[in-house]
Amino acid sequence: MDVTARLTELGITLPTVVPPIAAYQPAVRSRDHVYVSGQLPIVDGELLATGLVGDDVTPERAAELARVCALNGLAAVEALVGLASVTRIVKVNGFVASAPGFTGQPAVINGASNLFGDVFGEAGTHARSAVGVAALPLGAPVEVDLVVEVA
User: Fold this and answer.
1) CATH topology classification for 3-16+26-150
2) Which InterPro entries match (predicted)?
């Protein structure tokens, strides 16, 4: 699959890599895997939303933000090894800053998972965790990290 052509077909332009906000790298390769650090919904240096999902942020908006996190993750992979080398999305971890009683984390993280499926087809299906947390860095409502297999 030509990932660049698929992104164009979907009307997706990868963002620039979000610079780390602490002491880590956006992505690191170890043999045939790339480990992508947690990505926040940041575009052009701006965090798109803050707050708790189910209170300050709707689940639908949070799913859109999870998609942004996923795009930022793909940008980190592109910068490190190139998306053409990706053979599979292996694992996605999604974290949702959740209001008390909110239990819709899986639907929120579908925003990221669906993007990977749209871009990579069968190779975009993956193992996943969707976890509710009390707070995330900078007050973000969602964060996504991933592991990808590369050739």
Assistant:
1) 60s Ribosomal Protein L30; Chain: A; (3.30.1330)
2) Endoribo_LPSP/chorism_mut-like, RutC-like_sf, YjgF/YER057c/UK114
